[in-house]
Amino acid sequence: MRKFLVIVLFVIPESWYDPPRYRAEGMASFYAFEFHGNQTASGELFDLADFTAAHRTLPFGTYIKVKSKETDESIVVRINDRGPFAKGRIIDLSEASARVIGSYHIGVIPVSLEEVRVLEPDEETDSLYRNTRVMDCLGNPDTLYKYSLSIWSTKYLAHALYIANDLYLKEDFDKIYICNRTASRNKRFYLVISGIESRKKLDEYRSYFNSKGFIRVEAYPG
Fold it and tell me: Does the global pTM surpass 0.85?
């Protein structure tokens, strides 16, 4: 089934239609286990399972679509560190990001980079996602059913929407859910698939998403 995604939740400024502010091509490397838990240049702790990256000059919090020129796979990362400092490389990816685009077992690969215009939720939409326990990626309140699987989480709603929408278009799922567990303002947003028929299927999906680069996959309470 071919899917078409129409985003109706956000006020899109005129600048949305401008050419991307940043585009580049070059070589991408990655950093992983030995840096896990270290402080990045932005002050955040590096998490190898998150979709983040280091860039020499882009502002922290910039969202970049990284596309492998070898595998044609892509991922939207958030810039939160400085680097890479090796000559000839333009971006340093987290392990999870490298796994998604297929570079983890290769090391350094050619990529294209394109800045993604951030879909800044307005106050109403932001409040809706923060105060509703289960939403689909199109902004509809919903309910989980049968078995559910959390495949990734983030503190950043815009990033959750990017990854959820990307998965919705790429994968054969009717819905990708964005869930939260607490009423805290500093909550995390979990990307969840639901309606899984059995524990056996749950394990199969866990293995599948691990193979696609989603490192921290776990059963999600329904």
Answer: yes
